[in-house]
């Protein structure tokens, strides 16, 4: 019985890799802006927590988007 092998489009893999790399370049700058804009304490902690949460959610969204193409 033949096994179906999902195909992966190289252009999509490359595009998401580039998008992830660009996002990764901006992350240190954004964190620097947050740490200099808020004084140490609860406000800075909350700002960094939101920043980390948004980044984690974006990573999940990109992974699920890419996995939807693996079955094509």
Task: Write down the secondary-structure element order.
Answer: HH
| Strand portion | under 5%
Rg is 18 Å
User: Separation of termini?
Assistant: 20 Å
Largest sheet: number of strands, sense, barrel closure: none
Helical amount: over 70%
The number of distinct β-strands equals 0
Category by helix and strand content: mainly alpha
Low-confidence stretches: none
Number of domain units = 1
* Dominant shape: elongated
Number of helices: 2
Output mean pLDDT: 75
What does this structure look like?
By secondary structure, this protein is mainly alpha-helical. The chain has one domain. It has 2 helices and no strands. The protein has helices at 10-37, 42-67. Helix 1 (10-37) packs antiparallel against helix 2. The longest helix is centred in the first third of the chain and has 28 residues, at 10-37. 0% of the residues are buried. The mean pLDDT is 75.
Secondary-structure blueprint of this entry?
Layout: H1 10-37, H2 42-67
In a few lines, what is going on in this structure?
With 72 residues, the protein is mainly alpha-helical.
């Amino acid at each position: 019985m033949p096994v179906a092998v999902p195909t992966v489009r190289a252009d999509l893999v490359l595009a998401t890799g580039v998008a992830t790399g660009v996002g990764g370049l901006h992350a240190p700058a954004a964190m620097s802006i947050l740490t200099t804009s808020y004084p140490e304490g609860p406000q800075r902690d909350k700002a960094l927590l939101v920043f980390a949460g948004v980044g984690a959610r974006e990573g999940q969204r990109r992974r699920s988007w890419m996995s939807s193409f693996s079955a094509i």
